[in-house]
Design a protein that fits this description.
Elements: H1 2-10, E1 14-19, H2 21-25, H3 29-39, E2 42-49, H4 53-59, H5 69-76, E3 81-87, H6 91-99, H7 112-116, E4 125-127, H8 131-141
Antiparallel strand pairs: 1-3, 1-4, 2-3
The structure holds uridine-5'-diphosphate and magnesium ion (MG).
């Protein structure tokens, strides 16, 4: 039974979220963490890190041919980022909804970018966009030993349906 329980926990969906340097500099860390907590997701990894260029270039590798790539890497490496892994049912897509559209002026009010940002290059937060990118980004930013398996006592209330 115990082994089955551990196995089930390790199958839970996880996503990588990062508060970008603008979010940290503007003092929005608590506001943003609170939105994910209040939604009902579980924090399983959290650290503050100023990314190296190599880390930033790998993280945004999909965009390396785009004209904004160099500026994006410059910015993301300019100061501390708060890197997180959140866990829960449907967390990858749900986090993208909480975050809102990439262009803050197109992000709905009520979303993080809709409420807290105006500039696409300073849109406060990153969230993985699919299962494959979530797995890649979690592995890129975190050691396995930095992620915690734990069970909040109210976990069964957070499952849809
Ligand atoms: N970005 C930018 N200019 C653009 C498109 C994107 O500065 O024309 C930045 C923006 O900060 C965005 C990041 O590059 O968050 C990654 O772009 P992506 O399309 O993956 O958006 P996201 O997944 O962050 O919504
Ligand atoms: Mg993206």
């Amino acid at each position: 039974m115990a082994a089955l329980f551990i196995h089930t926990k390790s199958m839970a969906e996880r996503t990588f979220i990062a508060i970008k340097p603008d979010g940290v500099q503007r003092g929005l860390v608590g506001e943003i963490l609170g939105r994910f907590e209040r939604k009902g997701f579980k924090l399983v990894g959290l650290k503050q890190i100023t990314p190296s260029r190599a880390l930033a270039e790998q993280h945004y590798g999909v965009h390396k041919e785009r004209p904004f790539f160099a500026g994006l890497v410059d910015f993301i490496t300019s100061g501390p980022v708060v890197a997180m892994v959140w866990e829960g049912d449907g967390v990858i897509a749900s986090a993208r909804k909480l975050i809102g559209a990439t262009k803050p002026l197109e992000a709905e009010p009520g979303t993080i970018r809709g409420d807290l940002a105006v500039n696409i290059g300073r849109n406060v937060i990153h969230g993985s966009d699919a299962a494959e990118t979530a797995a890649f980004e979690i592995g890129l930013w975190f050691e396995a030993s930095e992620l915690n398996d734990w069970s909040p006592s109210d976990q069964e209330w957070r499952v849809e349906g």
